[in-house]
Amino acid sequence: MKRALITGITGQDGVYLARFLLDKGYAVYGTFRRLSTPNFWRLQYLDIFDRVTLIPADIIDSSSIVEAIEVSEPDEIYHLAAQSYVGASFEQPVGTGEITGLGVTRLLEAVRQLNPKIKVYQASTSELFGNSGRPRQDEETPFAPTSPYAAAKLYGYWMAKMYREAYGLFTCNGILFNHESPVRGLEFVTRKISNNVAKIALGLQDSFALGNVEAKRDWGYAPEYVESMWLMLQRDQPGDFVVSTGETHSVREFTEHALRIAGLDWDKHVRTDPRFLRPLEVNYLCGDCARAAQVLGWTPKVRFAKLVEIMVGEDLRRWKAFAEGERFPWDAPSYPTEATLLTRLLNSDGARAKRRELRAAAKTWATVRPSARTP
Ligand code: NAP
Ligand code: G4F
C-alpha cells in the first residue's frame, strides 16, 4: 500500500486530495496546525475524518516537519500548506514569506536528509505570472509576481526546481490556476459571492460589496485539479505543469451568473467598496494546459457556468438546511457576521414564519439548483 503525506490537509485542496488518494487505496497522513479552536470541518464535510491519520505540525517549525515524515514514512509528499490568501499577504508579508516561501525549503531539506527517494509535489500558482501581458500563460511564460504571496511562491518554485537539479530530488511544481468549490474559504471571491447570493435569495440580507470586479481569472473545479497533482508524481521524470481551464471570466461575470441563478439583480444587490481593493492587482489570468493534457492526460471537465451553479446551489442548500434545524460541518457559523445572522434568524419571534418562508423559497430553488449535492 502506498503512503502519502499531505501538508495542509485541512484546506480546500487537502481534503479533496485526501479523498482522491483514499479512493486509490493509499494510506493517507496529513499535517494540521495546533489552533485554539480545531478546524476539521472540511474533513468531516467529505466524511473522511476517520480515514486519515493526522499529525500535528507547523510549517514554520522544522522539527515538526521531520517528525511528520518519520511518523508517516511517505512515498509521496504533497506540500499544500501555505498562507494562501493574496489579500492577507499584503497585511502579513513577513509571515507569508516564512510560511509560503521558507516553508518549502524546510520541507525539502527534511526530505533530502531523511529520504531523498520521496517524491514531492509543490503547490505553485498562476499568481507567479502576475501581469504578464500574454493572452495565455504556460510553462514558458516569464514570471512577474505582484504580491508578497506571489513572491513567496516564486521562491518556493525555484527551491523545488533547484533541489531537483542540485540533489536529484523528484520535485514537481504544479502551476495551478484558480480552482474553487463549496469548501473554498469564505474570504476568496467566488465563495464570498455564492454565500452572499444564497443569503440574499433566502431573504436574509439585502446586498454585499466587492472590490475590483473587472479582474479576470481562469476558474476551475478543485476536485478535478487534485488529480493533476497525483498524475505529476506518477511519472518517471519530475517536471513542472500548468493546470487550468483555458477560459477566463471577470469577477463581474461570476457575480452576474450567480445572481442570475437566484433570479436577482446586480443594481439592487451589489456594491463596490474600495476597502476590498489590493495595493497591487493581477488583472488577467488565462492558462494554457496543453503540456498537462499531452503528458499527463489531464483535462478539465467542469466549466465556468457549471462551477458557479455548484457553488451557489450548495450555499443555498446549507443556509436553508441550517435555518430548518439541520446541523452539519460548515464554516459560516464560525464567522461572527454569519453567526449573528443565524442566531437572529433562529431566535426571532417570527422564526417559525421565516422558516415557512424559507421552505417555500427553497422549493423554488430546488428547480434551479444542481440536482445532486455535489461538494
Ligand atoms: P487553503 O484552503 O487556504 O489551505 C491551506 C492549508 O495550509 C490549510 O490546511 C492551512 O491550515 C495550512 N497552513 C497554513 N499555514 C500553515 C502553517 N504555518 N503550518 C502548517 N499548515 C499551515 O488553500 P488551498 O486552496 O487548499 O490551496 C492549497 C495550496 O495550493 C496552497 O499552497 C495554495 O497557495 C496553493 N494554490 C491554490 C490555488 C487555488 O486556487 N486554490 C491555486 C494555486 C495554488 P489551517 O486549516 O490550520 O489554516
Ligand atoms: O478569490 P481571490 O482572493 O483569489 P486570488 O487572489 O486570485 O488568489 C487565489 O488564486 C491563486 C491562483 O491564481 C492562488 F494561488 C491563491 O492561493 C488563491 O487561491 O481573488 C480573485 C480576484 C482578485 O483579482 C481580487 O482582487 O477577485 C478580486 N476581488 C474583487 N472583489 C475580490 C473581491 N477578491 C476577494 N477575495 N474579495 C473581494 O471582495
Description:
The chain has 375 residues and is an alpha/beta fold. Helix content is 46%, strand content 13%. Among the domains are: 228 residues, 3-Layer(aba) Sandwich (Rossmann fold); 31 residues. The protein has a 7-stranded parallel beta sheet, sandwiched between helices. The chain has a two-stranded parallel ribbon with strand order 7-10. The chain has a two-stranded parallel ribbon with strand order 8-13. Helix 1 links the parallel strand 1 and strand 2. Helix 1 crosses helix 8 and helix 12 runs antiparallel to helix 14. The protein is globular. The C terminus is likely disordered. The protein binds NADP nicotinamide-adenine-dinucleotide phosphate and ligand G4F. Ligand G4F binds next to helix 4 and helix 7.
Nutshell version of this structure?
The protein is of the alpha/beta class and 375 residues long. It is 46% helix and 13% strand.
Question: Pairing-aware structural class of the strands and helices?
Answer: alpha/beta
Q: Briefly note the CATH topology name of the domain at 3-183 and 218-247 and 285-301.
A: Rossmann fold
What's the mean pLDDT score?
A: 94
What's the architecture of the domain at 3-183 and 218-247 and 285-301 in CATH terms? 3-Layer(aba) Sandwich
Query: How many DSSP E strands?
Result: 13
Note poorly predicted spans: 368-375
Q: What is the radius of gyration?
A: 21 Å
Q: Write out the CATH superfamily name of the domain at 3-183 and 218-247 and 285-301.
A: NAD(P)-binding Rossmann-like Domain
In terms of DSSP E residues, the strand content is 5-15%
Helix % is: 40-55%
Give the C-level CATH assignment of the domain at 3-183 and 218-247 and 285-301.
Alpha Beta
Please report the number of helical segments.
Answer: 14
Span from first to last CA? 27 Å
Largest sheet: 7 strands, parallel
Overall spatial form: globular
Strand arrangement across the biggest beta sheet: 3-2-1-4-5-6-11
Bound molecule types: NADP nicotinamide-adenine-dinucleotide phosphate, ligand G4F
Order of helices and strands: EHEHEHEHHEHEEHEEEHEEHHEHHHH
